[in-house]
Amino acid sequence: MTNGERIVPGFSIDGNNGAWREQLTEEQRERPTLAATQKAVDEIDELYREQFNPNALYPANVSNEHIKQAAVENPAIFSPYTIVKNENGKLIALPYYVVFGDKLEEVAKWIDAARISTQNSEFRDYLGNVMNELMYGEEYREKTLESWLSMREEPPVDFLGVFSDRYDDKRFGKKFAPQAWTGTIDRQTTNDLQDFTNKQLVIWKDEFAPEGLFVNTNMRLRAQRLSWFGGLARAISGFNSPRRGWSANNQPSEIALRSKYGSKITLFLDSLEDYARFNKIPVLRKIIPTGTRRGWSEEDLVMAGNLLLASHEPSHSLIRRPGDEERLGNTYSTMNEMYSTSLGLAILGRRDDIPEETKNAILAMHFATTVTDLIEFDKNKKRIDYLRGGVIIFNTLIERKAIAIDTSGQIRWDDSRKIFEVLREQAVALEQLIARGDKGMARRWQQADGKLDNVRSLAPIRAA
To answer: How many CA atoms lie within 13 A of 316 on its CB side?
Structure first.
């Protein structure tokens, strides 16, 4: 690299042995890196919107049974990294890196720019592995993941730009979609949430872990700001802005890799906290009586929302077993989301280090989330899996008289211990169903307890 060589448009590095960098903060030193990873995210976003078609992952005129039979002879048919085509009556699997090769080269150029720019050697090695995975296929996936999860500490800038998560494959739930994000670390919040999660795991091991279930409890928490989203991660928010996407994400989605290396949960604080301030908290103020929420500041509720999600996301890593998702089919996502919420809150209820007032605020944010999900579903039919789970939990708490709806359409409860006990029982029942049940059992549960009437009777929905 020559003196003054421009790595990223708008930034340059002088060749004076990097002495100028010593005067900069960690975040300032990595600004060129962030600029490059943002460009890589934008390229993946273009790939997702212009080239990736969730409705063309399999031939439309070929039956599901035919595709399943073909996959027996050719397992690549159901690889998460292929598109299935019908060529003269024969099904073939084309790797993503072949189908999207030209665009992936553009992505790789910006990843390489970030790799050259970063001052973090472990992050540099990881970016090199990401490039290999994108350009040459899934055989590099494990090495990429290992380098991401084995860093001694979280890097100032992080980047994920891969094919992952199966939300867009509505036919079989097999194929990954292109998604990306980047952003800078909030170290204090990261440390706080890691400590929170570690304490959750201690209680899970002591009181909740099913006998005989192996779980890799190596879980890393990252609290991220200045996040920039692309692809599936941005589509979740309706493509309104690259600064809006997931509230949180748990990687990897592959059970075998999660068992081997553990998992990493990223909380995207800007998205999470803005959604709390402008969507959930206004709803909370309508559904929770003044006497219950007296003394709760907006910042208290924002933090309660962060802790709610920090209790939910790690629970995903405590339930996945090989075969569960296939056995439960299209009911799995709702049962998994409901389990993660019930378990995370039940564990929280057992903690002596969290004040009762904080627990009540977290419960209030949970109820506000369910109502907000229903409002959003009525507008755009999104987040149905989250909504179903929240509604079933809500109806169960009503039926068990742990909470009640008063005549003004607000939620009242006398003792949070009753709520947490019901949630504990529900988590146990859900764990048993997910481990040994089938799609019919899950669907019957959802139909019996998933009616929307109770949530629709709450003040914000009633007023609408």
So the answer is: 23
